[in-house]
Write a structure and sequence with these properties.
alpha+beta, 4-stranded antiparallel sheet, 2 helices, 4 strands, 28% strand
Length: 74
């Protein structure tokens, strides 16, 4: 399990995209699932993730479950 956050002052600079691309490129998993914060859903969609359900809330934390299929896994 990993958490990926980018400091507010560095958001929209390509840092998150680069970090995620590196993680995905080195992953041997067939798929990667995550719980995207509401403000990050469009970012993850732009990176190939798709929502697997509607908005949910656990202990007051709202998120959208998403998944990415690794076409390069072995």
């Amino acid at each position: 399990m990993t958490h990926l956050f980018v400091d507010n002052q560095y958001q929209a600079t390509g840092v998150g995209k680069a970090l995620l691309a590196r993680l995905m490129a080195t992953s041997h998993a067939g798929e990667v699932s995550l719980k995207a914060s509401l403000n990050a859903v469009s970012f993850y969609e732009s990176q190939g993730f798709v929502a697997t359900g509607s908005e949910m809330s656990v202990n007051g934390i709202r998120f959208v479950p998403m998944i990415w299929q690794n076409t390069h896994s072995k």
